[in-house]
Amino acid sequence: MLTFTPITAADVPLLRRYYERCTYRLCEYTAGTKLMWSGYLHPAYAEARGCLIVRNCIEGAYCFDLPVPKEDGDVDGALTALEEYCTRTGLRPVISAVPEEEAARLVRRYPCLQVKNLRAWKDYLYRADVMASFAGRHYSGQRNHIHRFEKEYPDACFVELTPSDRERLEQFWAAYEGEFHKEAALARQELTEAKRLAEHLGEGWLTGGALRQGERLLAVCFAEQCGDTLVIHAEKALYSCPGAYPALVRAFAAHRAEGCTWINREDDARDKGLRISKLQYLPQELGAKFHVTVGTELDDLARVPTVETARLTLGELRPEDQKAYNALCLDDERNRWWGYDYRQDLQGELTEDYFLTVARQDFQNRLAVNFAVRLEGKLIGEAVLYHFDWKGGAELGCRIAPEYAGNGYGTEAFAAAADWALYRLGLACVTAKCYRENVASHKMLASCMRPAGEDDTFYYFTKTV
Fold first, then answer.
1. What is the pLDDT of residue 136?
2. What order do you get walking across the sheet with 450-454 strand by strand?
């Protein structure tokens, strides 16, 4: 299973091995964004199938970036690893900041999903060659501002920032903060993080540029190149220097235009002033970020249904089942073949209603369906549909109390639950497994399903529509 490690500045070389060739064009797929907004994203990374997988935790909710491949990376294989991680940890695969050109991959892959495409988080994408020239009547306003700047600061020139500019940067930050008038918490946090990001100049992945007059910096910019896209993480200009912003934008684009096709000036985060400013530069397009929540067929199931067979009734667990259900769940001999020991996941005290509560919570979270198996109204076992694979498949297990074993009840209940899952719930595939030593379970599964392989521990079976 995937193991996620919190991202720190020490991980930038690893991140850049993936991001430096990334073609997604969005700011989320950069080392700078992970560092600048680590307090908000709480990012952690894992590697699988030649891909980088980043898990974010935003306001207590987990979401994942789309896997970023190296040259030989397998995105679909990495998604499989992510799905298995989510299944085992009880998380939904929520894949955020999916670039538009990759969204179709997820739509094809997942039968049940919800998609959001919020305007506020779209990145502003510009052609680098256009930004480097501001040619044409549409950019006459920008050129006029630049002319004013050049008239007032004729000696100003564009320079590439290096670690040797640290003292000049400190002086610039002091001057900029003296003119900074925004009160919004997000704007002030962005300024703080921009100053911290500047400390990474000289590490080879962060590019810095500035307009300098003598020893004084009038405007600064910090960016990171990923594939053919230059992502601008921060742009700051003294408010007392009219025209400095467009002059910096054009100069920095001209400095880097040969090495990139696109310039990403990131999103506007619903800030009215930023939106107006970014739109005035006439973006070629707004980079969509699809927010994909992957679900299962259980999401539309309002309650545990009732399924009738010749002798049995499968249905919802009820409070009056508590004693019989506890006996079933506490039967260590049965649990050995069930392949699950409740003690491994037990949290807190083992109360009388513990097992019923867990079963209800699993259904409320749409992680599993626990069917009570009843004979003449009495609970004699359960059938559980669980381990949904997010692609139309789930695993089915069945156990019968020992005093009712040997009468075919397990086979009858299992077959009914499998048919319900395929033909009523709408799954494409139901799987099951049994220990190699469990002759009775092997016989039952072989009568209901097709063999699907084996290993040193289990026999595997499957049933499809």
1. 93
2. 307-308, 312-315, 369-375, 378-386, 393-400, 429-435, 458-464, 450-454
Range 140-149, long-range pairs (CB < 8 A, 24+ positions): 141/280, 142/246, 142/249, 142/250, 142/280, 142/281, 145/242, 145/243, 145/245, 145/246, 145/247, 146/243, 146/246, 146/247, 146/250, 147/243, 148/242, 148/243, 149/241, 149/242, 149/243, 149/244, 149/246, 149/247
Distance CA 358, CA 5 (A): 29
Q: Quick check: 260 and 229 in contact, CB under 8 A?
A: yes
Please, what's the b/e burial string for 218-239 (b: 16 or more CB within 10 A of its CB; e: otherwise)? bbbbbbbbbbebbbbbbbbbbe
CB neighbour list of residue 37: distance below 8 Å, 6 or more residues apart? 193
Rounded (to 5) percent helix, strand, coil in the chain = 40, 30, 30
Give the CATH architecture of domain 5-121.
3-Layer(aba) Sandwich (3.40)
What stretches in the chain show pLDDT beneath 70? none
Which helix (DSSP H) or strand (DSSP E) does residue 75 occupy? helix 75-89
Query: What pLDDT shows up at residue 292?
Result: 97
- 142, 134 Cβ separation under 8 angstroms: yes
Instruction: Show me where the domains of the chain are located.
Output: 5-121, 123-266, 297-464
pLDDT at residue 183, as a whole number: 76
The pLDDT score that the predictor gives to residue 67 is 98
8 A C-beta contact, residue 55 and residue 62: yes
Angle at 44 (CA atoms; ends 9, 111), nearest 5 degrees: 145
Length of the chain: 465
pLDDT tens-digit map of 53-62: 999 999 999 9
Is the domain spanning 297-464 CATH 3.40.140.20? The answer is no
Neighbours of 445 (CB within 10 A): 27
pLDDT value of residue 79: 98
Q: How far is CA 276 from the centre of its chain?
A: 30
**Homologous superfamily in CATH for domain 123-266:** Gcn5-related N-acetyltransferase (GNAT) (3.40.630.30)
Name the pTM for this structure: 0.90
| Residue 220, both tokens | 């600064």
Q: What is the pLDDT of residue 243?
A: 96
| Distance between CA atoms of residues 172 and 176, nearest Å | 6
- Around Cβ 313, how many Cβ atoms within 10 Å? 17
